[in-house]
């Protein structure tokens, strides 16, 4: 499709490495320059020949996308929290009073209705995290028995936090019409300061979910969980992580996750291997701990980023290291049944990890690695297709949906990698195909009255990745098939659950921003620049990355006692508006175009 003879390397070492007298890997940008933060200078120094055809330099732009996707659609949109300690109000009493209102708002009969919904519909999200599911009803009963007791033990407070995490999950996933039948809107009228009669709406459900989450977190604080760690801290967190809580509060979620990892290791519960001398109770406990471990690894991987240096999932090696061994044994059934749902999900997610590790690296994935992932996906597709599905059980259908959606997401990422690094004959068609598969899985949930399946956080993040990449591709290479896909994706986003909150508006803004970049690309033509990447669009995209990087590197501004070591304005100036030197043909006009666009369509508007 495209001429890829120079897609990965320049013909000559970059001028930066030449000047420093170090070996250059000739990637664009090279590994040395990326480590030193000199990406822009390195790219300019490669002197790629400008042509009138986008096909000549699209491959290099797609390589750049790997870095852009990591910082913008992964870190920026979902893992960056804008913070200003001078503006954030600290009022613990007010927070406690707010939580008390919502805890009083929930009545006993309503709590059991929520628990019934969780048991009948959401089992796949939390059953593996709890040893005895039937015990939950007893714990809810005990919760109401001790409501009048002002002196709670740490043990009872942990149970309260765990139970409220289940309530929070129910409020998040429950359709509004069912929520309206359980809860009255009248008590909320005075509390929310509304003079008019309130009726249940999507926005009210979002508010209720957020407040219920705060109630669960408050009860964790009352446990003094850092002084008295307990496995129920991990269980509570894993249940809250089935909602958008990690996206809404990334810094808080990372702190809690780090404490969960510490608790897991502190009690040595990561050693759940079955032994011959285990008694029945111990065997059951180890099975539960194993499931918790793999679910915790999944949360840990999904939250990976520059703000989370502590990891757990890296202790589990790549599935591909074991796949080659299995294929050498002809008597081994590679289609054997998985031991648990949690292990199946983790194995699929580990393939996602094998692909996403190249997002922010200059190294190229070996073709044999991509082929091995493709074989493993075929195996998992066979396993999931073979799963017995009870059409009358939402738990069963939800379980299969999550597995199929995971496989489709990883398949989409896989063929995106084929397109970017190898441009195989059918790579773009496969990317479009799996985009449509992802859309069809979501649309099918609307058709079969299972819309709440689409509230799973992975739906939001996958759609963000897909629509962003296709919008980026359309900037430089127009395609009718891609344009039709973007229309479908835009319509789908407009119908995604309102419970995703402000993130939906940010995704819509990101799409609009790509459309404006497309208009700028078509409008501005640079003649005789000697560099294909010397264009306002590319400069804007580079600046986007640098801005998000700055937001995730606040060391200077956290050391309040020492003051700012480097003024923010100066730092931004050095990062974003480097002198273009002799490569610049029209530096004044060029800079004005970039600054005007960034002012009108700031990338910081997508940050939390």
From TrEMBL:
<dbReference type="InterPro" id="IPR031760">
    <property type="entry name" value="Cep3_C"/>
</dbReference>
<dbReference type="InterPro" id="IPR001138">
    <property type="entry name" value="Zn2Cys6_DnaBD"/>
</dbReference>
<keyword id="KW-0539">Nucleus</keyword>
<dbReference type="Pfam" id="PF00172">
    <property type="entry name" value="Zn_clus"/>
</dbReference>
<dbReference type="GO" id="GO:0008270">
    <property type="term" value="F:zinc ion binding"/>
</dbReference>
<feature type="domain" description="Zn(2)-C6 fungal-type">
    <location>
        <begin position="13"/>
        <end position="44"/>
    </location>
</feature>
<dbReference type="GO" id="GO:0000981">
    <property type="term" value="F:DNA-binding transcription factor activity, RNA polymerase II-specific"/>
</dbReference>
<dbReference type="GO" id="GO:0005634">
    <property type="term" value="C:nucleus"/>
</dbReference>
<dbReference type="InterPro" id="IPR050613">
    <property type="entry name" value="Sec_Metabolite_Reg"/>
</dbReference>
<dbReference type="InterPro" id="IPR036864">
    <property type="entry name" value="Zn2-C6_fun-type_DNA-bd_sf"/>
</dbReference>
<protein>
    <recommendedName>
        <fullName>Zn(2)-C6 fungal-type domain-containing protein</fullName>
    </recommendedName>
</protein>
<dbReference type="Pfam" id="PF16846">
    <property type="entry name" value="Cep3"/>
</dbReference>
């Amino acid at each position: 499709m495209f001429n890829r003879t120079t897609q990965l390397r320049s013909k000559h070492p970059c001028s930066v490495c030449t000047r420093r007298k170090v070996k250059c890997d000739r990637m664009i940008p090279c590994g040395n320059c990326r480590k030193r933060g000199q990406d822009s200078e390195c790219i300019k120094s490669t002197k790629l020949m400008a042509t009138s055809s986008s096909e000549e330099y699209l491959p290099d732009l797609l390589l750049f996308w790997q870095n852009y996707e990591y910082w913008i659609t992964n870190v920026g949109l979902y893992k960056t929290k804008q913070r200003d300690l001078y503006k954030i109000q600290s009022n613990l009493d007010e927070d406690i009073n707010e939580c008390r209102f919502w805890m009083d708002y929930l009545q006993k009969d309503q709590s059991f209705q929520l628990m019934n919904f969780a048991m009948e519909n959401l089992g796949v999200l939390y059953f593996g995290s709890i040893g005895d599911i039937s015990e939950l009803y007893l714990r809810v009963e005990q919760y109401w028995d001790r409501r009048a007791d002002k002196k709670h033990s740490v043990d009872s407070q942990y149970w309260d936090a765990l139970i409220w995490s289940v309530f929070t999950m129910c409020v998040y996933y429950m359709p509004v019409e069912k929520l309206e039948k359980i809860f009255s809107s009248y008590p909320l009228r005075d509390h929310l300061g509304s003079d008019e009669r309130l009726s249940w709406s999507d926005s009210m459900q979002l508010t209720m979910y957020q407040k219920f989450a705060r109630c669960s977190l408050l009860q964790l604080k009352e446990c003094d969980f850092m002084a008295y760690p307990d496995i129920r801290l991990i269980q509570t967190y894993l249940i809250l992580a089935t909602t958008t809580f990690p996206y809404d509060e990334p810094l808080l979620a990372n702190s809690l996750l780090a404490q969960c990892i510490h608790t897991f290791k502190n009690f040595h519960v990561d050693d759940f291997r079955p032994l011959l001398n285990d008694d029945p109770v111990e065997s059951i406990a180890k099975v539960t701990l194993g499931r918790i471990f793999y679910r915790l690894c999944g949360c840990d991987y999904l939250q990976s980023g520059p703000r989370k240096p502590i990891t757990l999932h890296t202790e589990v090696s790549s599935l591909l290291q074991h796949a080659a061994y299995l294929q050498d044994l002809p008597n081994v059934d590679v289609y054997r049944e998985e031991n648990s749902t949690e292990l199946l999900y983790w194995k699929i997610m580990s393939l996602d990890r094998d692909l996403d590790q190249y997002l922010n690296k200059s190294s190229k994935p070996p073709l044999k690695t991509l082929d091995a992932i493709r074989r493993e996906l075929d195996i998992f597709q066979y396993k999931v297709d073979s799963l017995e599905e009870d059409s009358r059980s939402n738990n069963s259908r939800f379980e299969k949906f999550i597995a199929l959606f995971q496989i489709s997401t990883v398949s989409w990422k896989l063929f995106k990698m084929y397109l970017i690094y190898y441009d195989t004959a059918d790579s773009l068609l496969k990317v479009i195909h799996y985009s449509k598969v992802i859309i069809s899985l979501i649309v099918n949930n609307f058709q079969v009255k299972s819309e709440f399946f689409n509230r799973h956080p992975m739906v939001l993040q996958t759609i963000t990745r897909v629509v962003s990449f296709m919008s980026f591709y359309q900037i430089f290479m127009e395609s009718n098939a891609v344009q039709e896909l973007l229309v479908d994706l835009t319509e789908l986003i407009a119908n995604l659950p309102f419970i995703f909150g402000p993130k939906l508006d940010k995704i819509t803004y990101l799409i609009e921003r790509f459309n404006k970049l497309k208009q700028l690309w078509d409008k501005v033509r640079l003649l005789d620049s000697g560099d294909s990447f010397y264009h306002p669009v590319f400069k804007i995209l580079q600046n986007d990355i640098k801005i998000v990087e700055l937001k995730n590197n606040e060391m200077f501004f956290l050391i309040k006692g020492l003051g700012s070591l480097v003024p923010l304005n100066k730092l931004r100036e050095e990062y974003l508006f480097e002198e273009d030197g002799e490569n610049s043909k029209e530096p004044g006009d060029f800079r004005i175009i970039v600054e005007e666009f960034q002012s009108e369509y700031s990338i910081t508007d997508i940050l939390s």
